[in-house]
Amino acid sequence: MKYSVFITLLLIWKCSTENKNSTDLIITNVNIIDVVAGTIIENQDVRIRDSIIISISNNNNKSKIFKNKLDGKGKFLLPGLWDMHVHIQDQSYLKLFLDYGVLGVRDMGGCVSIPTNGCESLCPDILNKWKSKINKNKQIGPELYISGQILSGTGWPTSLRASSIEDVQHNFAIILNSKVDFIKVYEQIPADAYREISRLCKKNNIDFAGHVSESLLLSEISDLGQKSIEHIREQILFCFTKDTNELEAFLTNDSYTKEDRIYVKPWINDAEQAIHAFKKNNTWFVPTMSIQFSRQRYNDSMWITNSLRSQLPQSVQQSFDDYIIRMKNNPDKKSDLLWWSALEKLVKRLNDEGVGLLAGTDIACEGGIPGFSLHEELKLMVEQAGLTPIEALRTATINPAQYFGLLKNGQIKENFIADLILIEKNPLESISNTMTINTVIRNGVIYRK
Ligand SMILES: [Zn+2]
């Protein structure tokens, strides 16, 4: 046998055996968004086999051996997006995430057995079942990280109490037993109970994240290892509002007494230390701008009538209708406006100071829509807070990957997981272009709606 014939036969054999059990895809001539460098690498062929990007190059003619092809000419390829603050209440969410290119989510917990108002998650046994099906490719859905039942000092009925060291020791074990990826902490946790959570997390090598405990300073919370801080709350607002007139407006508007002012003074004085601690400890901030912005949108008919909500459970839809009525009659409109303008500045300040930000929406609480709202979050970061489009994109791609220590996610590179979105228009020119989704690729496979 001639050598060349032998090589050809070998190649045919190799291709046929590879094709038998593996999936492949080539995306040709596409413009890749490098989220780290903030640049576009033009006209590349991206080759994918078995959920992994096996090579990226231009001017290559090997495309014939790929069964599945996508023409990327004139289009842009983004890493799959992450929503780092969600509350899953229904299977319909999993589809909506994929429809909008959200290929990874961090579920911020709760424990209800049926859908309620959208602000709390289903119990971890249900979410774990879906997660395992997704991981075995038996169900469509994003990469899923869950926190299960919440440790709280508020006594909120579906949470687990964290009002003392004993509470924490007892309830921490219950949460660990439910096989979660991290622990979610809520508010009103006393300092000693909070320290116990920190100690147990270190001992069990599990992260904790969530709301802020009022009994400790932000710098202390960061030093104790809380991995991310969610939402804008009074303590965060007071701590990071630089402008003293603005700060005074909050205190006056919310009728702070002399005693209240003494209580919050340490928060205000903590700003520089908190920023220093956040950077040193890699504490992330999740501003959830879109849910805060919903308080301004009770007259925005486009938002209120968004037909995607019809895919959500009835109880979530009902709760949204009630919410709009509440917002229309909200007596605290002035205070909400102050909070909103403070949040814009705070996001910009923390970003400029080098604190890591993560995109999170709190869906489907107060009008949030799985998948869709993540794009609104990115838009708010750019158009309201003043981040650049690439800075906003990082909060939903490379930053979540770094947060979870995922070394093969969040970028488009060889040997990385092929969770990708092909979009029609350049998102670096306008962040709204993330919505021009052409094709979603989950684990190397084209997702069809
Ligand atoms: Zn939440």
What's the number of helices?
17
The N- and C-terminal alpha carbons lie at a distance of 50 Å
> Judging by the overall fold, what is the CATH architecture of the largest domain?
Alpha-Beta Barrel
**Count of spatially separate domains:** 2
Compounds present? Answer: zinc ion
Specify the biggest β-sheet: 8 strands, mixed
Radius of gyration, in Å, reads 23 Å
The quaternary organization reads as single chain
**CATH homologous superfamily assignment of the largest domain:** Metal-dependent hydrolases
Q: What is the 3D shape?
A: globular
How many DSSP-defined strands?
17
Helical fraction equals 40-55%
The first-level CATH class name of the largest domain: Alpha Beta
Task: Write the SSE topology.
Layout: H1 3-21, E1 24-34, E2 39-49, E3 52-57, E4 69-71, E5 76-79, E6 81-86, H2 92-99, E7 102-107, H3 124-135, E8 143-146, E9 151-152, E10 160-161, H4 165-177, E11 182-185, H5 191-204, E12 207-210, H6 218-223, E13 228-230, H7 234-240, H8 244-253, H9 258-268, H10 271-281, E14 284-286, H11 289-293, H12 301-304, H13 314-328, H14 333-353, H15 372-383, H16 389-394, H17 398-404, E15 420-423, E16 437-442, E17 445-447
Parallel strand pairs: 1-4, 1-5, 6-7, 7-8, 9-10, 11-12, 13-14
Antiparallel strand pairs: 1-2, 2-3, 5-15, 15-16, 16-17
The structure holds zinc ion.
Zinc ion binds next to loops.
Brief account:
The protein has 449 residues and is of the alpha/beta class. The chain has helices at residues 3-21, 92-99, 124-135, 165-177, 191-204, 218-223, 234-240, 244-253, 258-268, 271-281, 289-293, 301-304, 314-328, 333-353, 372-383, 389-394, 398-404, and strands at residues 24-34, 39-49, 52-57, 69-71, 76-79, 81-86, 102-107, 143-146, 151-152, 160-161, 182-185, 207-210, 228-230, 284-286, 420-423, 437-442, 445-447.
